[in-house]
Here is the input.
Amino acid sequence: MRPEEYLTLDGCGIAQLVRRGEVTASEVIEAAIERIDALNPRLNAVVERADAMGRSAAGSTDRERPFAGVPFLAKDMNIEVAGLHLTSSCRWLAQLPAATMDAPLAARWRAAGLCILGRTNTPEFAGEFVTEPTWRGPTANPWDVARSPGGSSGGAAAAVAAGMVPIAHATDSGGSIRVPAAACGLVGLKPSRGFVPVGPQHDELAGGLDCEHVLSRSVRDSALMLDVTRGAEFASRYPAVTPERDFASQVEERLAPLRIGVALRAPGGSLPDEEIGAAVEEVAALLAKAGHRLSQFQYPDSAGHVAPPAAVIWMTATAEEIDYRQRQVGRPPQPQELEALSWACVEMGKRSALDYERARRALTQATYDMAEASRELDVLLLPTTAQCAVPTGSIDGRTSRFTLQRWNEDSYRYAPYTELFNVTGQPAVSLPLAESRAGLPIGIQFAAPLGADGRLLTLAGWLERELPWADRLAQLRKRLL
Here is the structure.
């Protein structure tokens, strides 16, 4: 397989060629390895290589698998993969041995035919909207290497946008799939809570805020990935009802008229940059012209106050993770072995159980209020981020200059639109529907009621056909050759 041919294909396209015998899985993997070799020194997206593992998987590929022979990368967070290390980009965990067993989700990746080639970069314990861990260094955005690819799934986003792999694992506890999707011009779906398992060590992650899925270049890849990974396992706390129809088929379905709420203001009241606001309004106009009924959406008051209680939940979860890992490492972390934000999480973990339960109650109230406020709507339309990809170094959760107040201000100035849907558990997707005057991607976000992932994917498929982004991504990948 020629490198130029590899770059034109999404995961479904590669699997179709392998299934028909037009290329071998081994040829595909060699093309992916060549691309990683060429670009990773510049982008620092892949932080653990597993070329031999990928080649072995390709050599024994069952051509009938949904993603037969498709190269894939796992994020260095949450999910154990046999043969790979799980360090959460924390230098304190650098000496832990590689996993000996797959987590249930990793086993589903392999069963689908994906060939795992390594792990991608993430901020320490996946805590930031940028990907600049002290230990491994920043990942560069392929669109502009002076900018961040977003976070926390920034390594995955850079790898997919640059054409190293067509699909990569990503996680989302506050926007960590959707923010990098917006920064790198990709499809980023956060599924409904409970669709994708997170075991075996946890029944939930980040107090239920976390969802596991992927970043992709096409809607159909995201939909098929949800089909092959969805479904509870024995430890799942929130097993979602399995839909009657597969998600992949819904991408091509006729889009019925929708009731769409439009919200330019973030839940806390801030507005996006002018170009992003204009892009949202242009998409709204397209949807209105297509016969959908649009109205202005007003967030309930509680939705604008979810950040503090959500921080109690996810920061306490990080503190517990550090406590758990201490037993594995055999000693506590030294001051220089954790970044400033991680130490702030440790302090948060010292608060009382009463504080934690109060935070849970506040988020539950916001969830009920959002359900009531959007009861007459099918979909919400809003920005993914308030700014395009920010320059590297803009958000500092790492150094002695860190303060939690300033970090919060900088983080939510960039990405105030995503965390609410982790709180409510609703599915939300970022689509690369526009581009700034400077040539940077602009992500537009859609959210739907809990369990209505298929509706989002049908809408996303229609928008991909109406406002295609494949050519923009193709031009980026050629430019990086």
About this structure: The mean pLDDT is 96. The longest strand covers residues 428-435. The chain has one domain: 3-479. The radius of gyration is 21 Å.
